[in-house]
Amino acid sequence: MTVVPTPQPPAESEARFARRFITPEGADLRLMLGSGGDRAAAFLLDILIIIVTLIAFTLLIGWIVASVGLKDAELWGVAWLLGFFVLRSGYFIAFEAGPRAATPGKRILGLRVAARDGGRLTAEAVFVRNFMREIEVFLPGVFLLAANAAGDPVEGWVVLMGLIWTGGFLLFPMFNRDRLRLGDVVAGTWVVKAPRRSLAADLAAGHSGGDFAFTRDQVSAYGVKELQVLETVLRARDKRTMTAVAERIRGKIGWYKTPDERDEAFLTAYYAALRGRLEHRLLFGHRRRDKFDKA
Amino acid sequence: MNGDLKSNRFRTEREADWKTLERLLAKAEGGRASRLTSAELMQIPLLYRSVVSALSVARATSLDASLVAYLEALATRAYFFVYGARAHLGDRLARFFRKDWPAAVRSLWRETLIATAILVFATAAGFTLVSSNPDWYGSILPGAMAQGRDPTATTALLKDALYHDAKGQPLSFFATFLFTHNAGVSILAFALGFAFCAPTALIVADNGLTLGALMALYASRGLLVPLGGWLSIHGTTELFATVIAAGAGFRIGWAVMFPGPLTRLEAARAAGRTAGAAMAGVVVMLVAAGVLEGVGRQTIQLDWARYAIGGAMLTLWLAYFYLPRREA
Predict the structure, then answer these.
(1) To pair with A75 at 20 to 30 A between CA atoms, which of A118, A148, A279, B236?
(2) What is the residue extent of each domain of chain B?
(3) CA–CA–CA angle A238, A244, A250 (5° rounding)
């Protein structure tokens, strides 16, 4: 991944998917569940990969039959049918039982399958969660196709009832907090975010004040929330935002800008100073949430 | 003001370890766990623990949000490797075949028995229906599945279908189609169990009706014995697999309907664990059935040999699943 989105203090929507997850060492990993959108996108990607592979495979078999002649056509037909079957039923299982516990689609979206109890993800669980796709995806698909073919009204009603029934299976993840689909319920799994993040440079590294000497009052103007917004601004490095933010801070703390002072340098120095102050207070047990917090 | 921040020093001191862990994990996740040296393999849990403790410290003392997020992501990845690490594949397979699979099937005996009863009853029903009125045949077996084997076919053609459907080839397209179709039916029978068992029962019954209808048709031409051979060589394995799959589905549906003292979610998961091992075994059985059907049936044309193989397979499965054995 090239872009590393800077994490914000968890917003409302994010906190909805955060789960306490205590490791045996007693640390809380704060797992993030995959959202419905991510899951659906990953699934569509996987389906796309399957379809493209299937088309390529079909062309390959067709090319072989065309070049070796129709003598062994049936044998190649058998190969095609078996290949299709393995791809359709084995794709998800093979990838999720692997060391990454994720299909290519999930990997692109930064998701993986995990056992809900924190134990290991067994092959049996992977089998179960993917066999359940038959009624979650395949069956609604069958009814959808039947809907096109339905001739008389009675058949139409049957198909409609079938669609409503199986649609319930398909939409099941929308109706529970953990976004479990039926396969997850039965297999005891869930899908969590496991993104790869690279370690970004420490903005406060090598800042010992320099030209900027802030008074204690000046570094006591803000709390953690503002500090982390400032971190976001500094990492995004957008010139106009930085100028605007620098102006706001100068106004708030009563800092007089010297003619050759650069906004980024000022902000970085102030960030380091503010973080130093807040972390110092943190060591003494005071976490100042934001600028309104008088602690 | 106060020199380098403590949180910054904290990070510089440990950064190298984190990078090492990241590198090892990338190697392990790339499916190259076997390429990790044993020293590296030993190193991962140690590095993981140090990252977890660094995460706790960072949360308490560092206000660098990106650092905390990085450590969270790294600790999560490492957690899944350390605690999700599987035993050696060979050991897992050995355990599955020696213990998990037969144990799961054994614990499903009641459900399997019910599914078998449904299958047998439906077969008898199909047989009786078609015997008393051949018109039933068309509504039980649609044209595509019948492949010309219907009441209008000549006896010679029906007989031919039993012995020469491969035209000398070991694998036929139709046999493969039937195999994928039946495997799909088994999986569907399992999955539908979740919908309170009833649809699974319907699928098993449908299978039995088809079977009964086919038997009635062949019986009317005095070909019941050859048909039995044609069916049983792979059918004992395949139908057994279907019945176990249906049993696994029943287990889940029952757990969802009547969770007992557990919550519905816990009950479903507990049922899923047993059902999962049984279903993994069903896949093995279906592959075995596929080989018997695709290769064995096409090359072995003698009725008694077909019966013998079918019977032997059934005995083998029964012994493997249900014979009492020492607890390993």
Answers:
(1) B236
(2) 6-85, 92-322
(3) 125
The predicted structure's pLDDT at residue A2 = 40
**Under an 8 A CB cutoff, do A114 and B61 touch?**
no
User: What gap in Å lies between CA A130 and CA B195, rounded to an integer?
Assistant: 16
Between residues A163 and B328, which one has the greater pLDDT?
Answer: A163
Question: How many CB atoms are closer than 10 A to CB A88?
Answer: 15
For the record, the structure tokens of B149 come out as: 């084997």
Secondary structure of B30-70 in HEC code, one letter for each residue: HHHHHHCCHHHHHHHHHHHHHHHHHHHHHHHHCCCHHHHHH
Rg (C-alpha) for chain A, rounded Å, is: 28
| Chain A hits for B53, Cβ within 8 Å | 25, 27
Q: What is the pLDDT of residue A219?
A: 86
Chain B, window 125-164: residues with a beta carbon less than 8 angstroms from a chain A beta carbon: none
* Helix/strand/coil for A132: coil
- Residue A266, classed as helix, strand or coil, is helix
Q: Please give the angle made by the CA atoms of B14, B19 and B20, to the nearest 5 degrees.
A: 100
Interchain CB distance below 8 Å, A29 and B79: yes
Q: State pTM to two decimals.
A: 0.85
- Rounded CA gap, A74 and B257, in Å? 47
Where are chain A's structural domains? 1-132+181-200, 137-176, 218-283
Which has the closest alpha carbon to B112: B301, B261, B245?
B245
CA end-to-end span of chain B: 68
pLDDT tens figures, A146-174: 877 767 788 888 888 888 988 889 999 98
- Residues of chain A positioned with their CB less than 8 A from the CB of B61: 279, 282-283
pLDDT of residue A212: 81
Confidence label for B211 from pLDDT (cuts 50, 70 and 90): very high
**Mean pLDDT for back-to-back runs of 10 residues, chain A (295 residues):** 43 73 86 91 96 94 84 81 88 89 93 88 91 90 80 82 89 90 94 88 72 84 91 90 91 85 88 90 86 77
